[in-house]
Amino acid sequence: MTRLTQYIVRRPSRLLLAVTSAIFLSAPVHGVELNIYALGHVSIDTVDDGLQSSIYIASNSSRIGFNGEHQLSDDLTVIFQYESGLDLTAQGGNDGNGGAESSGQILTKGRPSYLGLKGEFGTILLGHLNFLDQYANDYNPFADQIGDLGNFWEANGIPGRSDNVIYYKTNNMAGFDVAATYAPEEGINDSDYLLLKGSYTQKDLNMGLVYTHIGQGEGVDNQHTGLAFVMDYDFGSFSLGGGYQAESDIGGQIGNDRNSFTVAGIMPVGSKGKIKAQFANSLGQGADNDATQFALGYDYAFDEQTTFYIAYASTQNDDKVNFSVNGKGKGDKVTPLFGNDPNAISLGVIYTFSHQLIQ
Fold first, then answer.
1. Which residues does residue 65 pair with via DSSP β-bridges, in sequence order?
2. Which tens digit of pLDDT belongs to each residue from 247-267?
C-alpha cells in the first residue's frame, strides 16, 4: 500500500476537508467569506413514560451547514446560510430536527437556511427560519436536551421554525432592536404566521418582548395568539433567566388558553464545569389541565469543541395533559399517556467545529 493510499484510507475526513478547501480556494471569487460548520449531539437516555422504562440512543438536533457573506458595496452585503439536520443514528423521523422521514439517512430536515441582505437599513432574510426559537432559546440551559423549555412552550402549536419566511431586523440602536418574522398565506386564507420581537441588550442584561399570531386557516373565527417576555442577567459568579408566555385561543378554540412560566440558573464550577437547573410551569384553562417540569444537569467543557453532560428531568402532568420530558430538540421522543408523569436521565456529548474556507 502506497503512502498516498494509506493517507486516503486512514485520514478520510482530512482528505475531504483538503479537497473541499482546494476547490473553493481555487475558484475566482471576490469579496466572499465562506465557512463550514457542524454540531454533533448524541446521548444515551433512560426514559420512563410513567408506565415503563427504556434506554434510547438519540441524535439531538445535530446539524451541518455553510454560511458567509458577499460584500456588494461599502453599505450592502449579501448574507447566506444553508443548513441541514443530521441524524447520527440514521434512525429517521425523530432526530430533533423537525421529524422529516429520513430512515437510513444521515441528512434529514432543513434547518435555518436563508438568503438575504444587510446594510444601513438593517437585515432582510428569506427562507426557513426560527420562529419560537427566536425567544424560547434566549435563556434555555437545556436546549436540545431532556428538560428543554420547548416541551411546554412549543407543545401547543407555535412552531420552533417556520417555512417560507420573510424576516426583517433593525440595526442595534443603543441596545435596542426590533425584528419581524412573517410567513404568508400562500393560497390558504387566514393561515399566515407573524412574530414581532423587541430586544434590549446592555452589558450583562438581555430582555425580549414578543407577540405571535398563528393563523388557523379559513373558517376559523379565532386565531391562535401569544405574548411572551424573556429576560436573563449574568451576575458573574452565576446567571439567572426566565420568561412568561401567554397563549390565547390555541388551535382556534375560544377560551383554550395557556400560561407558561419558567425560571432557570447556571453556576460555573471550576474552569470547565457548570451546574444548571430549570423549573417550568404550564397552566391551562379548567381543572386538571396543568403541568410542571424540573431539570437538573452538569456540563463539562473538555475543550472549546467538546462538551460532556449528565442531566435529569421530570414532568408532572395533570389528568388532561400529556407533556413530554424529552420532546423539543430531542431524538426518540417519548409521549406519555394523559396524566402520566415521565422522567429521564441522560448522558450526552456535543462536538462542534467550524472552518473558514474563504476569507
1. 37, 83
2. 999 999 999 999 999 999 999
In the chain, the largest separation of any two C-alpha atoms, in whole Å, equals 74
Percentage above 70 pLDDT, the chain:
92
| Range with the poorest average pLDDT among 41-45, 95-99, 157-161 | 95-99
**Separation between Cα atoms, residue 26 and residue 304, nearest integer Å:** 30
d(CA 39, CA 57): 17
Distance of CA 203 to the CA centre of its chain: 24
| Nearest alpha-carbon partner for 195 in 173, 177, 168, 231 | 168
Phi-psi map region of 48: left, alpha, beta (phi>0 left; psi -120 to 50 alpha): beta
Within 8 A by CB and 6+ apart from 125, the residues are 79, 114, 115, 116, 165, 166, 167, 168
pLDDT tens-digit profile of 45-64?
999 999 999 999 999 999 99
User: Cα(224)–Cα(159) distance, rounded to whole angstroms?
Assistant: 12
| Cβ–Cβ under 8 Å, residues 85 and 109 | yes
